[in-house]
Specification:
heterodimer; A: mainly alpha; Cytochrome-c3 Hydrogenase, chain B; three-stranded antiparallel sheet; two-stranded antiparallel ribbon; 5 strands; about 55% helix; B: about 180 residues; alpha/beta; Beta Polymerase, domain 2; five-stranded mixed sheet; 7 strands
């Protein structure tokens, strides 16, 4: 896709949206859209730093029971991802109201989360550690150390950041009443996640249809009343605290046992075994060549992503690839309400609304 | 409310509207109707005081080129948030005449979902306020997710669909 046609495409989505590129005060938007240009029309699944979603849809299809330990480990990784997501979203709202300091503090903390990911699987953003049946490897001693340090040092820093903005007169004046949406409209527009909860509806997939043992943990679902930028900020702030609670519970009660299910049809055997044991070599070969049994059927599976209900509709005809795989991307769905939410408001409020909706371009285009 | 009760309620309130019904592999009640009835049926599911399927979770199309007259399937996922029930509604359309009424008047969220479905599958939603391409470039003249295109680069001779578990290649039975 040429640059020019990219802009004409933006115009075609909606005339009002094209002005978003004018927001030079918005480093996130700038980066995101530059990325889209570089991607040259190549479609990616999601830019959110989260793992294992599609695996779970497949596990549901193949009816694989994932061990408790792997479920808890996934919860820890996923809630860390939620914290990283919300931290950047909320600190960027601060930046757009002229408060850069909090952003620099919180970027440092996000860096610590990415360091943990790096330790876990070698990558920082595209956490590739989820496998069908569990995880690729157990937490390393360094990961344990980093996680323990993070759980101890992060909360006071986060509250410091919170104090910079939560009752800050300028911040409140700028965000209260900016880009509001009511519960009825939000529901009709298909809102889920923090943006919906800011409008006052306590819908959360983690509670409604618990997956990966979320039913084991004690946490609350914060809701707002006005559905404006301030409420979205407050909901995400509280969700960060709740995510910490969940991580603490999961980590304290991390069950012993295996970090993956005993499903040799899907889970690659250890490399040492592949070289020395015939059976392991056969399974390795079958998995790599796609000769594994896949049931026929259709499955819809949803998880609570950083931005709401991330759904996977998978139709299998028994072949090696899904016959159809459809993603419900919360971003793509709620972004269409944006023109209505900023209609008649100032451009500066429109930029605030944009950052508080947390639109991720990669998720939008998937 | 169980799948049987939902089904019974539909049959009682809208007799004969369903042309098929099953509980799918994932346990979700999956019903089939026709495009003549789809708008009324979804409106009924949304507004019925017992069913209350208030939320349109997602909609998408599927292409079954092997099934003459029913090549395109429209799939709607609805969710009742009060009782936490989900239902899947399907409508099959012939590929030469892929028209279906829009549901943008029932849920605002259907707007971009239907545009995306048009963009990738060429389903035409009658009454849609602005049915244009949304993710692909405007001057594209194909519907890229239809199964008319080979999975691999067509110029390659060393790979064909048989390597992807289709076209006569059955693989092992799942047990």
């Amino acid at each position: 896709m040429q640059v020019q046609s990219y802009f004409s495409q933006l115009d075609s989505i909606d005339g009002e949206l094209a002005t978003l590129n004018l927001g030079p005060t918005h480093p996130a938007t700038h980066g995101i859209f530059q990325n889209v240009l570089k991607m040259n029309g190549e479609r990616i699944v999601s830019a959110e730093p989260t793992i294992g979603y599609i695996h779970r849809a497949f596990e549901k299809l193949a009816r694989i029971e994932v061990p408790k330990r792997a479920q808890y480990m996934r919860v820890i990784v996923m809630e860390l991802a939620r914290i990283a997501d919300h931290l950047i979203c909320n600190s960027v709202i601060g930046v757009d109201t002229g408060a850069l300091t909090g952003f620099t503090y919180m970027f440092q903390e996000r860096e610590r989360i990415y360091e943990m990911y790096e330790e876990l699987c070698g990558t920082r953003l595209t956490t590739n550690v989820g496998r069908i049946g569990g995880l690729e490897r157990d937490f390393s001693p360094t990961f344990h150390k980093k996680l323990k340090t993070f759980l101890k040092t992060f909360p006071p820093k986060f509250e410091e950041f919170n104090n910079l903005l939560e009752r800050n007169r300028i911040f409140m004046d700028r965000t209260i009443g900016a880009g509001p949406i009511g519960a009825e409209r939000a529901m009709s527009y298909g809102f889920t996640g923090p943006n919906l909860r800011a409008a006052g509806i306590d819908y959360d997939v983690r509670v409604m249809q618990p997956y990966s043992s979320y039913e084991d943990f004690d946490f609350i679902i914060p809701v707002g009343t006005q559905g404006d930028t301030y409420d979205r900020f407050m909901v995400r702030q509280e969700e960060i605290r709740q995510s910490l609670r969940i991580i603490n519970q999961a980590y304290d009660n991390l069950p012993p046992g295996d970090y993956h299910a005993d499903v040799p049809d899907y889970y690659l055997p250890p490399k040492d075994d592949v070289y020395t044991k015939m059976e392991a070599l056969i399974y390795h070969f079958k998995i790599v060549m796609g000769e594994v049994p896949v049931p026929k059927g259709e499955v819809y599976h949803a998880v609570e992503g950083g931005n709401g209900e991330l759904g996977f509709y998978l139709i299998s005809d028994g072949g090696r690839q899904p016959y159809r795989l459809h993603f419900r991307r919360p971003c793509f769905i709620y972004y269409q309400a944006y023109p209505e939410m900023v209609k008649g408001s100032m451009l500066s409020d429109a930029i605030l609304t944009m950052s508080s909706m947390n639109v991720i371009a990669g998720e939008l285009d998937a | 409310m169980t799948s049987e009760l939902i089904h019974a309620r539909i049959e009682q309130q809208r007799p004969g509207i369903l042309s098929g019904s099953e509980v799918a592999y994932d346990g979700m009640l999956t019903v089939e109707t026709t495009r003549e009835h789809i708008y009324d049926f979804l409106k009924f599911l949304r507004d019925d005081e017992e069913l209350q399927f208030n939320f349109l979770t997602t909609l998408c199309a599927v292409h079954y080129p092997e099934d003459p007259g029913r090549e395109l399937a429209m799939v709607y996922h609805l969710h009742n948030w009060r009782q936490n029930l989900r239902i899947r509604v399907k409508v099959f359309l012939p590929v030469e005449d892929p028209h279906i009424p829009t549901v943008t008047t029932l849920w605002l969220t259907a707007n971009w979902m239907e545009r995306e479905t048009y963009d990738f599958y060429g389903v035409i939603f009658d009454g849609h306020p602005k049915l244009t391409r949304i993710l692909n470039v405007d001057d594209m003249d194909v519907f890229p997710l239809r199964k008319e295109y080979k999975l691999e680069d067509g110029t390659r001779t060393d790979k064909d669909d048989r390597f992807f578990g289709r076209d006569g290649h059955e693989g092992r039975e799942f047990d």
